[in-house]
Amino acid sequence: MSRDQWQEQDLLQVAQDTPLANLAQNLGYDLDSWLQSATTSLPETLRITRSRDDIDWTESLLRELGGKPIDWGQAAFAWQMPFARGQAPDSRSKYILSLLHDSGRITRQEAASMLPVAILDPQPGELILDLCAAPGSKATQIAEAIAPHGVVVANEPVSGRVNMLVSNRGRLSTTNMLINQQDGRHIGRIPPPGYDRIVADVPCTGSATSRKNRNVWWKWSPKESRTLFRLQVEITQRGASLLRPGGTLVYSTCSIDPCENEAVVAQLLRTLPYLELIEIDENRLPGLKLRPGLTDWAALDEKAQPIPRGAEVARTTFLQPAHMSPAARLHWNEALDEEIDESTENRIQAELSKCRRLVHHDNDTGGFFVALLRHRPEATPEGIAKSFIRNRKPSLHSDWTPLVLDHPHTNRHTIYAASEETIEEAKTRYGVKDEGLSWWKRGKRLNIAPKMVEERIFNQKCPNKRGNLWPEGTFHPLKLIHVGLPAFTKKRDAWRSRQEAVPALQSLITESKHAISPDTLRRLLKGWAPMVEDYNSEYEPLEVDGPLLLSCQLPSGENLISAWAGARLTLMLDEKARDVLRLKLDMPFQADDEEE
Fold first, then answer.
1. What pLDDT digit, counting tens, does each position of 449-488 carry?
2. What is the model's pLDDT at position 512?
3. What DSSP state is assigned to residue 282?
4. How far apart are CA 539 and CA 520, in angstroms?
5. Residue 292: strand pairing partners
6. What is the pLDDT of residue 492?
7. Distance of CA 267 to CAs 275, 329, 386, 477, 510, Å?
8. Are the C-beta atoms of residues 477 and 464 closer than 8 Å to each other?
9. Edge to edge, what strands does the sheet with 569-571 contain?
10. How far is CA 537 from the centre of its chain?
């Protein structure tokens, strides 16, 4: 028996006597089957970046490693490998997966984590909010689905986690993401009518993540779940208030505790009557088994044992009426001393089966909970998100009109619309075809993003909570720290393309490209750094001093490579980017050296 197998067998014994196992049993799961799955490692799954020109090459590599598309992943965006997470069979396979991930051709992501966005079904050209976006797997999944003209606002309150969002945006060369840093409970508005769709994948206890986070077995308790309930409700309520009529919101957690799942959805339906739960179309997810949401569940003590109905229940931080199922609230009505509308509770109880649960052993995945809610159009005839509707309407005799407020104060982080002169300078140098782009400047960086950023956010007036208007020409009251993708950097009075932006720029650039052969690229990858005059005497002369892009046609398609023409011609690539090219050229690379 291997060390890993021994650890899993040992964990299985320990897990049987935990509150988390008691919870699973109380949910009606077959405990033996659930424990066998929940204590083993996840399979290696990933999301393939379908916007890359060399996607066929990437897919061929994955197939060589034994990978296959997951049936329910539309357009083969989701893949599963024939080995456990992080346990590729040899160093070469591990390194190839690392190269594909680091170069943005794939994103290593748990299959269950892809489910909320698949259910939300974002469409090209939409404006979407991800309320709790870091590390960015769902936000980038949305960004790809709505590209090239749609936009996702990726919000994250914690500075350290924002850095992960920025890193993933650059790794994937994502142009249509705005990164915002605010508490999700108080996130700023965008101009009316509001967001088309919203993801509320809220902070949770992670009780369904036991296959990758074994500490959950020792950390989880019912009390831990209940301390997050209020935060989960408030974040989602704020998101719902920003949703346009007819728009949809997916609420999700990686938890199996109904207090974090169905109880939160029930509370949303109580407090936000303009929301409705809608059926999830499972025909769009072929081969994936999902279970209906719970309509009733036991109130649990600290060891996750059910509290008998009829027992005295104290209203404490540990157990509040809102944590209970609608049926339990009605049963304990008098003991809880709370006014409860019986018809409302009965309606909510019947609706909760529209939620869905992904259970570990049903599909060999992690666990997940999802619910799809809709802002009923008939509930808001004004045609705008609820946050734009003033609570206090002016009287019939009032001559009140909204004030247009002054522009907010700027600081070193303020993002400006780039001037026409700056845009033209970068476009001319590289012959950029302006296909629906907006241009943004922050310091010495020039970013590109879809036109929607200008048209639907920046150049529109935005009401504040009193009904007055923030002027156009600002992103306020959002607190954006990144808009789009940094495509160019100002160096030596010239705009130089950034390597992270090359995949996004590849179809747009027509100038400052110098064609080279595969043999020349091989020489450069082996360390050849010729004097420019020597290069010019042997090959077609370079016409650009300073930064340029080398263009090399390979069977996988055109490859644009950042280089510098000074005294010598040198590649401006890190070692992993060089190894991607070596792999395409069948040259030895780092993992091959390790194998030897």
1. 999 999 999 999 999 988 899 999 999 999 999 999 999 9
2. 82
3. G
4. 9
5. 356
6. 77
7. 11, 12, 18, 28, 55
8. yes
9. 513-516, 546-554, 557-565, 569-571
10. 50
Going by their DSSP bridges, the two strands 78-84 and 68-69 should be labelled as antiparallel
Q: With CA atoms as reference, report the closest residue to 588 among 60, 596, 61.
A: 596
The 10 Å Cβ neighbour count of residue 293 is 22
252/284 Cα distance (integer angstroms): 18
Given 254, 259, 355, 552, which residue is catalytic?
254
Q: Which residue type occupies 347? A: R
Q: Output the CA torsion sign for 363, 365, 369, 372.
A: negative
Asked if CATH classification 2.30.130 holds for the domain at 512-595, the reply, yes or no, is: yes
Cβ contact 200:116 at 8 Å: no
Rounded to the nearest angstrom, the gap between the alpha carbon of residue 111 and the centroid of all alpha carbons in its chain is 13
Sheet holding 68-69, edge to edge: 68-69, 78-84, 43-48, 106-108
- Residues 336-388 have pLDDT tens digits of 556 788 999 999 999 999 999 999 999 999 999 999 999 999 999 999 999 99
Contact 506, 550 (CB under 8 A): no
254 is catalytic: yes
| β-strands 291-292, 275-277 pairing | unpaired
In one letter, which amino acid is 339?
E
Q: What is the pLDDT of residues 574-592, one digit of tens each?
A: 999 999 999 999 999 876 6
Look up the pTM and report it: 0.94
> What integer pLDDT is reported at residue 441 of this predicted model?
93
Q: How is residue 403 written in tokens?
A: 């004030």
Q: Range with the lowest mean pLDDT among 58-67, 172-181, 316-325? A: 316-325
φ/ψ (deg, to 5) at 362: -75, -30
CB 137 within 8 Å of CB 112: no
User: And the tokens for 2?
Assistant: 């291997």
pLDDT of residue 3: 37
Per the listing, tokens 């049963």 go with 331
